[in-house]
Every structure is written in structure tokens, then in C-alpha cells.
Amino acid sequence: MTIVTPSDDILVDGYSLYSFVASSAVSGGALVRIVGEYSVGHASSQSHTVGVAISETAAGNYVDVAGPGCIVRCCASGAIVYGDDLYAAATGKVDKNHTYGNPTTRCIGIALETQATAEGALKVLLK
Fold first, then answer.
1. Are 92 and 43 in contact (CB under 8 A)?
2. pLDDT higher for 59 or 91?
3. Residue-number span of the structural domain to which 109 is assigned
4. What's the CA gap between 113 and 33, in Å, rounded?
5. What is the C-alpha separation between 9 and 60, in angstroms, rounded?
6. pLDDT for position 9
7. What is the pLDDT at residue 39?
8. pLDDT at res. 31
9. 3-state secondary structure of 69
10. Residue 79 shares a structural domain with residue 92
11. Cα 2 from Cα 63, distance rounded (Å)
12. Residue in 48, 69, 52, 54 with CA at minimum distance from that of residue 10
């Protein structure tokens, strides 16, 4: 299931695309993390992400992942304001609270626009 509205392009701008094998079904617009050799799964609140899946993919298939420097649409786990540093939250979503799961989790990007509600899509510049 795509977590960003399918009518929206997930990759807005950028060319840092990498291909990985999906270890399980991966949602388009979800933050992903390395879970094995050249394989990814949804990021969680305590994981280091490698980017954002730009399409929905079934387990075992290749998925293109947007990396640092790309502008992508992600799904918010709560209210976010433009300029907020963003971190991985549950099920591949983004959150502004760095203590969501682990205060040492690295910032994955910066919000480029405001999203007042949970589950809403917003543009993010990936770090």
C-alpha cells in the first residue's frame, strides 16, 4: 500500500536513485532501511534510513530508493512545520521529534512545507 497519495509523484526532484531488493512489501513514499545485503524494508523509529522508496514493491522485487539530495514526498506521523528536522518514525513515516525512539537517531531530512495532520504528505529534502 502506497503511503503517499498515488496521484502525487513521490520523487519530486533529484537523481540519487539506488536499487535494492525489498525484503518484504515496501510502500511507495516510505522511509527504508538496510535489513540485509542489498535489501531494504520499512524504517522504524530506531533505524538509520537509506532513503525513500519511490514506488510500491512486493517482497523479493527490486525497488528504487531516492537518496541524499533528493526532494521527495513522505507521509507525516504528526504535525510538521517547514524547516523542521525530520526523523524516522514507525512504518516508514517521518516525525519531527528526534526522541521518538532514540535520541541518537540521525536526521533524515528537512521539511520543505507544513503538514498540519498525521498521515498527510509533505515535501522533504533528504540529507
1. yes
2. 59
3. 71-126
4. 24
5. 23
6. 81
7. 96
8. 93
9. coil
10. yes
11. 13
12. 54
Pair type for strands 17-22 and 62-66: antiparallel
Residues 75 and 122 in one domain: yes
Last residue in a domain, options 51, 66, 81: 66
Domain assignment present for 4: no
Q: Distance between CA 95 and CA 89 in Å, rounded? A: 6
What is the residue type of 44?
S
Contact 40, 62 (CB under 8 A): no
CA torsion through residues 74, 89, 87, 51, sign? negative
Question: How many CA atoms are closer than 13 Å to the CA of 33, on its beta-carbon side?
Answer: 19
Question: Contact at 8 Å (CB) between 31 and 4?
Answer: no
**Coil, helix or strand at residue 111:** strand
Residue 104: C-alpha distances to residues 45, 87, 107, 111, 114 (Å) = 11, 10, 9, 19, 25
pTM of the model: 0.89
How far apart are alpha carbons 86 and 12 in whole angstroms?
Answer: 18
